[in-house]
Prior knowledge:
By secondary structure, the protein is α/β, with parallel strands linked by helices. It contains six helices and nine strands. It has helices spanning 5-32, 53-69, 86-97, 111-121, 137-144, 186-190, and strands at 42-44, 50-52, 77-81, 101-104, 125-129, 131-132, 135-136, 169-173, 184-185. Helix 1 runs antiparallel to helix 2, helix 2 (53-69) packs across helix 3 (86-97) and helix 4 (111-121) packs across helix 5. The radius of gyration is 18 Å and the shape is globular. The termini are far apart.
Amino acid sequence: xxxxxxxxxxxxxxxxxxxxxxxxxxxxxxxxxxxxxxxxxxxxxxxxxxxxxxxxxxxxxxxxxxxxxxxxxxxxxxxxxxxxxxxxxxxxxxxxxxxxxxxxxxxxxxxxxxxxxxxxxxxxxxxxxxxxxxxxxxxxxxxxxxxxxxxxxxxxxxxxxxxxxxxxxxxxxxxxxxxxxxxxxxxxxxxxxxxxxxxxxx
Length: 202
């Protein structure tokens, strides 16, 4: 009927974030945060790795606090280049905890394909493996986002000529190769200063 306008749109957006955070809580706690639902159950992971649902709850909460430290908030986009590692689960839930949008990319993408989807998606943060099955993602990023491994990359000015202007942070999962010194890693994100953890949905 045309009434309400912008205010109604804002309320809908706020409700969307609130509902998404509530669903994450139900999915995780309802699946087995131990004292509520008996003995710990396990979440299937590739190889010999297992995660209990309690593990997912705790680690995703820590990662969510780290994402907030990187400036990720509601409706922000976080790209994911990850094969079937246990960390895919915890990172995915962490992104949902802060109300952001997970944007999974095909981990078989080569440099030009990855450059295109990164630019098209508008991701501020990319969580990627260091390497997988002969692909070197750190080397790809050297061509896609030069200087990504420099301390000042997060504070660069978005210029029209840049291939991925919104991108500010790369977080590496060490897989097959080691991360370069000084860059963000998934393990480091989990261990970041947690002074803002109260701001992450609990």
